[in-house]
Amino acid sequence: MTTQLLLVQALNGLQLGILLFLVAAGLTLVFGVMDFINLAHGVQYMLGAYLGASLAAATGSFWWGLVLALPAALLAGLLLEVLVFRHLYARDHLAQVLATFGVILFLNEGVKLVWGAAPLQVPIPALLQGGVEIMPGLQYPIYRIAVLVAGVATACGLWWLVERTRAGMLVRAGASNAPMVSALGVDIGRLFTLVFAFGAMLAGFAGVLAGPIFSVEPGMGDNVLILAFVVIVIGGIGSIRGAFIAALLVGLIDTLGKSLMPDLMRLFLDASAARQTGAALASMLVYIAMAAILAFRPAGLFPVRA
């Protein structure tokens, strides 16, 4: 593999990591604050992508589609929380898993009914078309760089919100001792609802950003959800900083592994066997890394202080 290709794949891995962080940030807040396992978080990413694509097509502008899709994703999260999820908070984790898996099936079929099963293509906005020369003879798409910048800015804003504001203080206090926070006069139910809706909006934001890069199709959130759970386990449940660092790590391992493993296997196997073995090992690398990290840090890289 050439240096240029390695650099491109590393940037692609960072961009994937940013999208994973936007999904995992909401998921780790919901899991860490509410102790609620939401398998349907991936379909909120999918809904964001469909809402962004539809609104961009209706308004003729990607930017209007992005601006309108965020409150729409937040409202969709609120609706799901009121209709389904709030009735599961007092149930055990098995009931939460089964119920949210049912929501996945329902929404995947609902998307097919509304938008059809064919993938939707979202054009890159004119302002972000083209590329930037990062090495002599090597250009990298401006839109992917914009995704990196937007993700880093969101991570900084989210860290400030959670660590430096009164609302963030209440969220962290609710994660540590919800009954005590409620006894002090805070409406813990409303707090949980806002956390859930905000997490849904972050997932929707990731879906809108992913639209011009990946095809928008039913079930697109399933693989992202699996990687998002890996991210929050590696980073530490409830930790925004841990989710950010773990997301970048997972994105790099997943992308570089798929690019490098077939080439590495050619040192030991013929071309056909190396391709198959390399692809199989590449799909396992993220989970091997998770197992190795948890062997030394069972609570994750940056566990939330109790």
Automatic annotation (TrEMBL):
This is Branched-chain amino acid ABC transporter permease. The keyword Magnesium does not apply. Pfam families: BPD_transp_2 (PF02653). It is found in: Cell membrane. InterPro entries: ABC_transp_permease, BCAA_transport_permease. Its main location: membrane. It comes from Roseomonas alba. It is a multi-pass membrane protein. Belongs to the binding-protein-dependent transport system permease family. LivHM subfamily. It comes from the Bacteria. Keywords: Amino-acid transport, Cell membrane, Membrane, Transmembrane, Transmembrane helix, Transport. The chain crosses the membrane at residues 6-29, 36-56, 62-85, 97-122, 142-162, 191-214, 226-256, 277-296.
